[in-house]
Amino acid sequence: GEDLPSAQKVLDKLLVTMETVESLQSEVDAVKAVVAENGRCGPRQDGKLGDLEYAYNQLKGNFINKGQDMREGVDFLENLAELIVWGNEAKEREVAFDWSDYDPKSHPYEKLLAQDIGKRQKHFDKNLTLGKQLMKTEHPMSHIIGEDLEELCDLWTCLKDLAGVA
To answer: For residue range 126-143, what is the model confidence (pLDDT) as tens digits?
Structure first.
């Protein structure tokens, strides 16, 4: 997915498919139970059962890895979206503020914005570090993660400039 909603849809479809893959486990277990009940079957059937188990485990492993990657990406993008929304709202307040009547003693706007930034700085730093890690490890969603991370960094720099925070 190229954005958070489409990534969430892909994750949802992947989870449904994973349920189908997991349902195959009961069929593999049923075949194993028949084999155990009847004793060993022929070498050809034992080989096919082994091949079936191997293929199932490979398929399941692939879906688990893809599901984990998608969940991690969606969770990360949700965190970024929260920060971006907050940042855009703070920037909008700055743009819409009537500076003609501004009195820093009665309304210390810059100080309040600086405090808000300070409260969110640790969250920003954590997301920045995680985003860089995801991109470095070539996460399947690294393209959109990189774009959103860049947007957040630009917005963060803008807000810090507006608040006079170094």
So the answer is: 999 999 999 999 888 888
Residues constituting the chain: 166
Where do runs of H (alpha helix) occur along 1-141?
4-38, 43-96, 109-136
What's the pTM value of the predicted model, to 2 decimals?
Answer: 0.66
CA distance from start to end of the chain: 36
b/e 29-66 (16+ beta carbons within 10 angstroms → b): eebeeeeeeeeeeeeeeeeebeeeeeebeeeeeebeeb
Please state, in angstroms and as integers, the Cα–Cα distance from residue 151 to each residue in 80, 92, 122, 145, 158, following that order.
10, 15, 18, 10, 11
What is the rounded CA–CA span in Å between residue 23 and residue 56? 11
Closest CA to 73 of 140, 129, 138: 140
Query: Which tens digit of pLDDT belongs to each residue from 64-116?
Result: 788 888 888 888 998 999 999 999 999 888 778 776 776 766 666 667 888 99
CA distance 91 to 82: 14
Secondary structure of residue 138 in the 3-state scheme: coil
* Confidence (pLDDT) at 113: 86
| Most distant CA atoms of the chain, gap in Å | 91
